[in-house]
Amino acid sequence: MGITPKILAFAGSTRTESYNKRLIKLAVAGARTAGAEVTLIDLRDYPLPLFDGDLESREGLPANGRTLKDLFLAHQGLLISAPEYNSSITGVLKNTIDWVSRPCPGEAPLGCFDGKVACLMSASPGVLGGLRGLVHVRAILQNIKVLVLPDQIAVSKADEAFNPDGSLKDPKRQAAVEGLGAKLAQMIAKLHS
Ligand SMILES: Cc1cc2nc3c(=O)[nH]c(=O)nc-3n(C[C@H](O)[C@H](O)[C@H](O)COP(=O)(O)O)c2cc1C
C-alpha cells in the first residue's frame, strides 16, 4: 500500500448502548488491520443544535461544527454505521451532515465530502437490519459528491447478534464486517496511488 489511508469512522447514533457503535468498532478493526489510520469518533461528543438558517446567519458555524468539518477535511474515507429511524436516516446523522456541508470562506464547496470514499453499514433489532435507511444515507452522500462503495452490510436482530465482548456471534458476519473496513482502506489506497 503506497499511502496510509485516513478514515473517519462513526455511528449515526448517540445512544450509549448503540448497536451501531458496536458494529463500527468491528469495521474499524478491519480497516486498521488493512493499514489504515482510523479516527473513531462518537457524535455524542460533538453535540450540535438543529440546523437553523437564522442561527447560522447570526452566529455562524457552531464550534463543534467547525471541529467536525476539520475532521472530515483531514480524512479521505468515511466509515459509517447508520441506524434506521422510520425507514430512513437518523436525525443526528442528517443534522451532522447538514452542518458539515455548509460553505465556509476559503473552503471549496462541499470540500468536506467531495472526493471522499465512504462505506456504509447498519444494525437494527428488526429483520431488515436498517437496510432501508442505508438507501437514503447512500443517496444523500452520493448527492454531495461522496463515492459510496457498493458493498454494505445490514445486521438484523442486532439485539441478539453481539457477544458481550462486542464481537458478532456469527463469525462469517464478523469477518464480513471487518472486510468492509479493509475494503474501504484498500479502495482509498488505490485511488490515491
Ligand atoms: C424514532 C425511531 C424510529 C425507528 N425506526 C426504525 C425503523 O424504521 N427500522 C428499524 O429497523 N428500526 C427502527 N427503530 C429501532 C432502531 O433500529 C433501534 O432503536 C436501534 O437500536 C437504533 O440504533 P442504535 O442501537 O445504534 O442506537 C427506530 C427507533 C427509533 C427511536
3D architecture notes:
This protein has 193 residues and is an alpha/beta fold. It is 42% helix and 16% strand. It contains 7 helices and 5 strands. The protein has helices spanning 19-33, 53-59, 63-73, 91-100, 131-143, 158-161, 171-191; strands spanning 6-11, 37-40, 77-81, 117-123, 147-155. It has a 5-stranded parallel sheet with strand order 2-1-3-4-5, with helices on both faces. Helix 1 packs across helix 7. The longest helix is centred in the last third of the chain and has 21 residues, at 171-191. The radius of gyration is 16 Å and the shape is globular. The N and C termini lie close together (8 Å). The structure holds flavin mononucleotide. Flavin mononucleotide is lined by residues 11, 13, 15, 18-20, 83-87, 124-126, 128, 130.
